[in-house]
Amino acid sequence: MSIEVLKEPSVIEGKPTFVEIDEQISAPIDKLPNIKYLIALGITSTMLLIGIICIGATFFYGIGLWGNNNPVGWAFDIINFVFWVGIGHAGTLISAILFLFRQKWRTGIARFAEGMTIFAVMTAALFPLIHVGRPWLAGYLFPYPNQHHLWVNFTSPLLWDVFAVSTYFTVSFVFWYIGLIPDFATLRDRTKSTIKKIIYSILSLGWRFSNRHWHNYEMIYLILAGFATPLVLSVHTIVSFDFAVSIMPGWHTTIFPPYFVAGAVFSGFAMVQNVLIIIRKIFNFEHIITLDTLEKMNKIMLATGTMVGYAYGMEFFIAWYSGSQFESFVFINRAFGPYAWAYWIMVSCNVVFPQLFWFRKIRRNIPIMFVIAVLVNVGMWFERFVIIVTSLAHDFMPSSWAYYKPTLVDFGILVGSFGLFFTLLLLFIKAMPVISIAEVKAVLDGAQPHHTHNGGHNGK
Amino acid sequence: MKYFFNLFKNKSEFSRKSKAAPKFEKMSAESRRRFLALMGATTAITATACKDYRDKGEIISYNKKPQDVTYGKANYYASTYRDGSPILIKTREGRPIGIAGNDIHPISKGKVSIQAEASVLELYDPQRLKYPLKNSNKTEWKTVNKDIIQRFQDISSKGKEIAIITGKINSPTYAKLLEDFASNYPNIKIYPIELFSDRNRRLAWATCYESNEYPAIDWSQANIVVSLEADLYATDGVPYEQINELTKRRSGEKAENFNRIYAIEASMSLLGANADYHLRLHPTVYYPLLLAIYNDLVEKLAPFGHTTIGDFSLEKVIREHNLNQKHINLLVNDLLNNQGKSIIYVGDNLPVQLHIIANFINDILSAYELYDYNSSYVEFYKILEPAEIEELIIKMKQGKIGAAIFADINPAYLLPPDFDLQGALKNVDFKISLTEKANETSKLCDYVLPINHPFECWGDYQARKNIINLQQPVIEPIFDTRQKEAILLSWINGKNEEYSFDLYHKYLKNRYIEISKQFNTLDFESFWYSALHDGFIQLKSNEKSTKKLNLIILRQTKKPIEDSGISIVLKKSPLIGDGRYASNGWLQEIPHPVSKIVWDNYAAISPITAKRYGLDYKDFKSSMIKISIGSKQITMPILLQPGVAEDTLVIEVGYGRKDAGTIGTGIGFDAIPLMDKTLSVILSGARIEKTGKKYKLFATQEFHKLEDKYLKDLHRKRQLIQDGTVAMYLSNPDFIQEQRIMSEEEIEKHSVNPPHEYPEAKWAMAVDLSRCVGCSNCVAACNVENNIPIVGKEECGNGREMHWIRIDRYYSGTSEEPIVSYLPVMCQHCDMAPCENVCPVVATTHSTDGLNQMTYNRCVGTRYCANNCPYKVRRFNFYDFRHRFADGYYEQDSLELLHNPEVTVRSRGVMEKCTFCVQRIAEARQDAKSKGKNFTGAEVRTACQEACPASAIVFGNINDPNSEISQLMKSKLGYKLIEILGIKPNVTYLAKLRNTNSEDLT
Predict the structure, then answer these.
(1) Would residue A254 count as lying in a domain?
(2) Fewer Cβ in 10 A, N or C end of chain B?
(3) What is the DSSP string of A185-235?
(4) How many domains would you assign to chain A?
(5) pTM of the entire structure?
(6) With bands split at pLDDT 50, 70 and 90, how would you rate the model's confidence at B11?
(7) Which of left, alpha, beta for B535 (phi over 0: left; psi -120 to 50: alpha)?
């Protein structure tokens, strides 16, 4: 009953055989790292080292090494936290929500995006722990039974964060690992090294590609996708509660949950797109991570970017409509006050430039889309800067206002967070298949000969 | 960048050695036992406080408990601070930890100066000299005394003079001691030198009334007070007394009694900031304006014997100098309509001529009705006139001075370089400095002898005719120091006598045996002990007669100030005085009451003049200017100060010390070099030049241009400051309540949380903004009570000052004529505190008596609470400031004794804030419990409340319907800060009333 015009174009270009797919995807793992890889790793681990030194110094001397001051209690620390949690949104969205929506184009990028999620959330989770004044007591943030009958405060959004982020991380991690099992088995079967074989054997949990395995795998994958989907929405909703639940003008806003989720997806896709453009070039995955796929991601960026732009506008409208002088002052101050530069960076990067994606040519032009996505990430970082710093720096009491200026240590930690993220990513590239071998095979042309509108999903 | 490099410079905070008991360089010769025995024998009151803690390495309980010491209970001893503030020294287990005002003192009425509030830091200051120095080397007192007596005899035999250079002498016994000293060495001369003093006032008074004892003024009786460049609230006269009396009549309770204050000045003084009318005036116009007022009053009142002088008339002065006619007419009418109740008061350091004219005006106005001759200001030694200082210097240069003794004075800093003291001292054979801390003068001296802090001294202090304050030691000298009187006493006979701590004590007592005879006391001992207990002796004085004005004098006055170029007004710093308190970090860190600048001075300039010279102050970066008068020049930063007269620079002196220890050295800029040999504080003919350099001048409040349309009057729009005129209040007492956006019921209705219950007490505070003058005594008192660390200039600039109470200053109006409002802000202890519900670890909680508590142990430092606090009163320990500040200044031995043991010393990474002095509440509750009484909280007073000279702060239990606070909570002037948030703060502010016309409000 298939109608040719309605048939989706193949998400994988060319018609590679299963073996070719195995070889191509495992190639980065099989080969020893080349000099380019080592240079890249050198750069990222240097960045990481800078971050470690800065964090170490902060542990040693105190938060005073940062630019934070008395009205501005949070700055780079929480900006980075929200930024990285946001980056971590694309992965689960691609792997879970797009999976449930049967978006086949996701297969090429899902694994990688999931990996980025894991690493981004790991990077993000670092910040709530290091931002506290006495990090050696950060354990107090977790509810653990103790003889002092000390308990945490369940009314605090920071505590909600602890649960939201740890849940999100756990579920994302399990989801990612489950997806990796068949690929580990493939790698196990391919490798000639004993050590690798042992490691992959353990990791693949005795996978034998049996029909029964596939059946269970599909079920659990589906369940986890269903489980992860609300988390994609909830984690940034709860992160936004850090602000929305407070009483600060500019924070105390009901629009924050959807606005934050949209922003997170926006920045997450931008980051995934950026990294994939490099990966597909270096590892010759152009036919697996196709231009079509990138174009689709750009469309999502266009959509979420517009949503974010709408939220910016709506914030201003509500600030005026609420009649609250504190609220309207904060927004006027954002756009025209001492932090106007940050505000206009944010608006131009997040709202103006992504609008170029309305043009098909730009959507399919790799250098331009790369630059736009970089700008989106810059813009999204500044969005958090604007929300956090401008609201705190100029709140209710004009006497307490103070201009926040970051220090070198602040930048060092920011650089370090990128170092951590990319170092983990580079290690991931060399240790695991960055594209799901099993899933790609399943979406090859002809892999699903019985695919109909009422048919099953994979290989039935 | 600086952080990055500082990282590696600082000592590790974890490498601190564990500390044993304090080890002082050299213990005094007195043993604890001997000292106790000695003291116990002489006085039961002081004995127990003076114990020696140095000989123990661990805390052990008393084998035999001294009678008056109870562990955990503070003892208070009446004494006097060096500036004459009558104080009660609070000691815990023999260790002074703070001061309180002496409530029964008839003049101070429990109020003290801001320097006295912060004085305990000086006591334990590790910058104090710890032993005598001979040519900068450590030596023994015995050798010192032997050498000095020998040298004195040599000098005397050569017929050279011994000059004792001292500050203003306020101690009658010290004055007598100097006389005795001079009678033993006939070649001794006494030279009292002060840069800022009442010398001109006294001279003018002597000229007009033939008496150098000028009367006290009963400020509380004055309806109209006109000050001419006199900062009655900060630097002139006795500020705490004047604040107390002037603000008594500035409260909504008695609005019909409101006084009206005019400040005519070139600067923006603290009085000016609080005045009902601030009339900006170039210093050269002081003279014509005062004479014009005089002439106008003479014409209107035709008083006997007065005639107009010259052709000065109000119209002319107003026209020529473009003054505010409406306000000046109002002023003159007010003076006329309040004869006997109005007074013109000229700043202490203004030229004598202006004082004389003011005396004449006051005579016409019958201001003598406000004079209190019983409490006249006495003088034991006349302060040197500039010409006399010059003579001294010449004598020094001629080699006629054999020895110079600098008794607790620092002329090398205070005297302008024109005098060339340094050069003159080269011709003085022998120089001795008696000082607590090394300073510019002690550096030039052969012998530097360390003297006691006032808390370690016996003494007396008399500024007024009818009262003598007594000073008693509450601790044995911490270092190997002696009090300056005792040092002089040990030289007095020319014999190197055995020194004992009791030396001056005996001398002092002997003198009071004479005085006691005029009292009907049974015996001297009981007289003496009761006087020590009270801290003062009230003398009988029955001087009632009003003195007659010498009417001829006025004709001979000449215009004192030339008018050319830029004028400069030099003032004493309200915080560090003439520089003598420069090494007290607490005082350096208290924001300047008007400008809110910390750790610096500046040339205050009007924004319009600044613009003309292309000068700017933005983002704490200030243009440096070169100021020159003739060949003299200095470089310093500017501050755009609204309210300063055009073409005028106002500079505070006391900064730019070259040798003031680790804390005070190099803080700010020294403006004394601009002065000439007349020591006039008003200089004219200055030129300013932009240097193009920038200097970081930090304030605790951002500087905004008053004309900025988004920021203008924001404090009023947000109802942070609610104000109105007295007339508005009298005609409609509800005018503040009518401005409320939400009623209490509405707020209650919007709350999602059930209200807390307060079964026992509920604490609240009220601050009367009509009374608060922003003097910042409360900040100093809070620092001492609550162990607030000093953070230093850089950290203040980073917005990390730690003060638990701050005084916000807001400007309305224009930058030429600003209307200033002060708002003291401490934790508001909200019922629905937004900080409480956001803390993830429950480190900040609500108590059953309405306090918002901080649990330091539990705090991990997320800073969420501070973010969510709309009043921004929470303070985060970004560092271990005790370690960080001035390379571990706090970690030196003696400063460990500074802290109030009832208040936790906070370390890095925790949040802190005002606790409503919870330790005092707890103590009062325990007391009530142990006595079996019902605890109402009526006796609890917070540190800020105690320190407030204006009595603007009231604290208490609102569950007690009889408490003062319960009454104030119902005041029609009451409002809460940002009430619409529904967080129900517990501090009520009483709206500020100004005694102006309503059109002058904006």
Answers:
(1) yes
(2) N
(3) HHHHHH---HHHHHHHHHHTTT----HHHHHHHHHHHHHHHHHHHHHHHHH
(4) 1
(5) 0.89
(6) very low
(7) left
